[in-house]
Automatic annotation (TrEMBL):
Any GO molecular function: aspartic endopeptidase activity, intramembrane cleaving
Keywords, comma-separated and alphabetical: Endoplasmic reticulum, Hydrolase, Membrane, Transmembrane, Transmembrane helix
Keyword DNA-binding annotated: no
GO BP annotation list: membrane protein proteolysis; signal peptide processing
Name of the protein in question: Peptidase A22B, signal peptide peptidase
Annotated transmembrane regions: 41-60, 92-110, 130-151, 328-347, 426-448, 454-472
Keyword Cell wall biogenesis/degradation: no
Organism: Thermothelomyces thermophilus (strain ATCC 42464 / BCRC 31852 / DSM 1799) (Sporotrichum thermophile)
Start-end of Basic and acidic residues biased regions: 506-543
Alphabetical list of PANTHER family matching this protein: MINOR HISTOCOMPATIBILITY ANTIGEN H13, SIGNAL PEPTIDE PEPTIDASE
InterPro entries: Peptidase_A22B_SPP, Preselin/SPP
Membrane topology summary: Multi-pass membrane protein
Similarity section: Belongs to the peptidase A22B family.
Length: 569
């Protein structure tokens, strides 16, 4: 982080989490804590916390303690998102060595070139192209949130009554708490929530709104075929097309203008994308990686000239810079991404614990055969996981089901609570630790009037707050055992547990589950569902029909829009 009493720095360090900038300005005669609340400092702290908060929630995945989400009528089963890479213990050594090699290479390249302008042009062009993916992810998720705000699937009135919006029947209905029966509200025949649902609209406008909602919230399909054979078939949303258009325009505008505001936006997008793609795997590995980068940061800042030289000469969107009449403040992206990955893991751990508390025990009969051919049946208990609620589209539901003056939705908005408003003790503790680390960084920087390696204060703040929270809650063992390497996901096995008279688990074992939904093709309520195999058979049948109908699809590229199944009365 840079000092405010000097001209804005040219660049931040491209390989280090911090971006110190030396200063020859005299030490201020009197330090005042009021300086911490100057605009450039508040913008840096709030921007860093905002990016981490948004990125952590964007990184939410189905935890091992939850069952796969139920597929609603008219929707296709979505493939679960996976992290591209999970860190391993060896990364605690590999990362500092790799970053040191890159930093030293840039340092000697700058010394050889003498004029870093050519290098800056190359790096700006490269980072502009690389940031398109991250900016596309951020823009797409932002558009999804905006769509859910305009067309939510539920909303609550002042009395706490939840109204559900059904796009297939084109109506709004309420559910009786005792009988679970649905009652259609005839006076509300638009897809608009809240008081907007009481507006008197023409039939044509109502039809348009229902069609628009359907087109924005349902999957479109793009298909590429050669000689009647489908080579590629992709499902996407309208927002998926808009996201890349927005990302390309912003990246091009930054490349030609170099505005700080656009640079900050691209930097935030890359941070956001990092949270979506990478996982620390476990608290232990994440803490080890942060500790190693903590040492690397201190050594490179205080004991070598590499970091300061590179930070002064590289100009690329790899930092947040905010200026004001009193000076400038800068924060390297590593100061956001490195601790932010562990904070995102803390949020996913909160979600894991939330669904773990919803696991219920269900009686199950197990039949065993002896060597003599006789069979015996025993009754045990198995753990049944609650289905996972995807966060996509739930932020609008949370907004429309949260009364004024409250922070959480009404009790009957179960989906919005499960996806967005679940308890988050570990995540909030890490946020407090990060904010405390930033305040200490700013204080030391202002006292000594010199840029500081932020990880020197952020790493103890974040890791200390997390492990201290686990110690106070008596869950250090749970933190130690939690991992995202897939070993905790028991989706395909039955975990049989034995309980004592007080309901405490005394023994548990695992049995292979027979007759799963994938094998039987039936859901829990007994209704037959389409499987991937049936979809493939259907596609092959369509391709064969096209050939035998007297024509050949030598080349075909098509985009199919979702078709409304209902019509206005």
């Amino acid at each position: 982080m840079s000092s405010p009493d000097q001209s804005p720095p040219n660049v931040a360090d491209i390989s280090s989490p911090s971006a110190p900038v030396p200063s020859d300005s005299p030490l201020p005669p009197v330090f005042s804590f009021a300086r911490l609340f100057e605009p450039q400092y508040l913008l840096v702290v709030l921007s860093a916390l905002g990016v981490i908060w948004v990125g952590a929630h964007g990184s939410l995945r189905r935890p091992p303690s939850a069952a796969p989400p139920k597929v609603k009528k008219g929707e296709k089963k979505r493939e679960e998102e996976k992290f591209i890479e999970g860190l391993v213990a060896s990364d605690a050594i590999r990362f500092p060595l790799l970053l040191a090699a890159v930093l030293m290479g840039l340092y000697y390249l700058i010394q050889w070139l003498q004029d870093p302008s050519i290098l800056n042009k190359i790096l700006r062009g490269y980072m502009s192209i690389m940031s398109i993916t991250g900016l596309g992810a951020l823009a797409g998720d932002a558009l999804d949130v905006l769509t859910s705000l305009v067309f939510p699937t539920m909303w609550a009135d002042g009395k706490g009554q939840v109204y559900h919006i059904d796009s297939h029947r084109r109506c709004q209905y309420v559910v009786d708490k005792e009988t679970a029966e649905e009652t259609v509200i005839n006076s509300k025949d638009t897809p608009l929530p809240g008081r907007l649902s009481d507006l008197t609209l023409s039939p044509a406008l109502k039809r348009f709104l229902w069609e628009l909602r359907h087109l924005l919230t349902r999957d479109w399909t793009a298909r590429l075929a050669v000689y009647g054979k489908t080579l590629a078939k992709v499902d996407f949303h309208v927002n998926d097309l808009l996201r890349f258009a927005i990302a390309g325009l912003v990246a091009a505008a930054y490349h030609w203008t170099g505005w700080d505001a656009l640079s900050n936006l691209l930097s935030m997008a890359m941070c956001y994308f990092s949270f979506l793609m990478f996982s620390p795997t476990s608290f232990t590995i994440g803490t080890m990686v942060l500790a190693s980068l903590f040492i690397y940061d201190v050594v490179m800042v205080f004991y070598t000239p590499y970091m300061i030289t590179v930070a002064k000469n590289i100009d690329a969107p790899i930092k947040l810079v905010f200026t004001s009449a009193k000076g400038a403040s800068m924060l390297g992206l590593g100061d956001i991404v490195v601790p932010g990955m562990l904070m995102a893991l803390a949020l996913r751990f909160d979600l894991f614990q939330y669904y773990q508390r919803q696991i219920r025990l269900e009686p199950v009969e197990l039949a065993t055969e002896t060597a003599s051919g006789t069979s015996t049946t025993t009754t045990q208990n198995r753990r049944v996981k609650a289905p996972y609620v995807d966060t996509r589209g739930q932020w609008g539901n949370r907004f429309w089901t949260t009364p004024l003056g409250r922070l959480s939705p009404v009790r009957d908005a179960a989906e919005a609570i499960s996806a967005t408003a679940f308890p988050k003790p570990y995540f909030y503790a890490s946020v407090v630790g990060y904010a405390a680390g930033m305040l200490v960084t700013l204080t030391v920087m202002l006292v000594f009037n010199h840029g500081q390696p932020a990880l020197l204060y952020l790493v103890p703040g974040v890791t200390g707050s997390l492990w201290l929270t686990g110690l106070v809650r008596g869950e250090v063992k749970d933190m130690w055992n939690y991992t995202e390497d897939g070993s905790l996901d028991t989706e395909d096995v039955i975990v049989v547990v034995e309980v004592d008279a007080e309901g405490n688990i005394v023994k548990e074992s695992k049995e292979k589950e027979k007759g799963t939904e994938k094998e039987s093709g039936k859901s829990e309520d007994g209704r037959v569902q389409e499987t991937a195999g049936k979809d493939k058979e259907t596609e092959r049948g369509e391709e064969q029909d096209a050939i035998t109908a007297g024509h050949h699809e030598l080349f075909l590229f098509s985009i199919t829009a979702p078709r409304a199944v209902a019509s206005m009365p």
